[in-house]
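[step 3/7] fold_predict: job queued, chain A
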Amino acid sequence: MGINVINVKTFIADSIFELIEHEVAVFLGNEDHVRLYDSIDVNGYFVLYPERKFAVATGVPLENWLPVFVHEFNHFRQWKEQDPIYLKAFPHGKPGDDREAIEFINEWVEREVEFSDTEIQFYIERAREMEADCERRAYRMIEERNLPIDLATYAQMSNAYIHFYNFVGKNREWYAIGKEPYRTLQVVQAMNTTIDDDFSTINEEYMELFETHCMPEWYHRLDCSEAPIETDCGCKK
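[step 4/7] structure written:
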């Protein structure tokens, strides 16, 4: 059975109307990425600063960008509803007036700031639980709107994405571009086909999968001279 194009177009139109109704700028780029904060290439985003903006890269097959659209739209819904889990992701203020937990995590990963184990786990938890809530919302929306996205696969990709936050908290590294955990077959296939209830811990199997399949090449070498930043072992590019 082919894709119900009218159903997809109706969903996209309804979503864009709702975004505009709440004074959110909408950008659907025709490349394989969109630029966040003028410096980071991503698949999509919903941000409040410096303006409310929703963006998705649509220069890829529908099967790749539609799940991103649904995910980012549900971040908008979290903000719209002032969901308590979403508000906790802005740990020192409120949405629009403060930075998200993920921004503190990024600075820590880039070695721009230092946090104690307790502090970084605080930020990891806030970001992780906000993403978990978003993925559960997206899963329900896919089902309710009968979108052409396989729910079992979406759940596996979601689990990979959310569990990876715990890996970051322990290893202080993000995945390499092109080795995203939610697009790496060996990782995705190891995940449950429904969204997990609890993401507070990570098992050794997942840790090993992330380390084996998602890390940059320099990560696996004793000499970290190719690292883009100074690492904890003191190596520099």
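[step 5/7] annotate
The chain has two domains: 1-61, 82-220.
Helices lie at 5-21, 62-81, 84-88, 101-109, 117-144, 151-171, 185-188, 204-213.
exit 0
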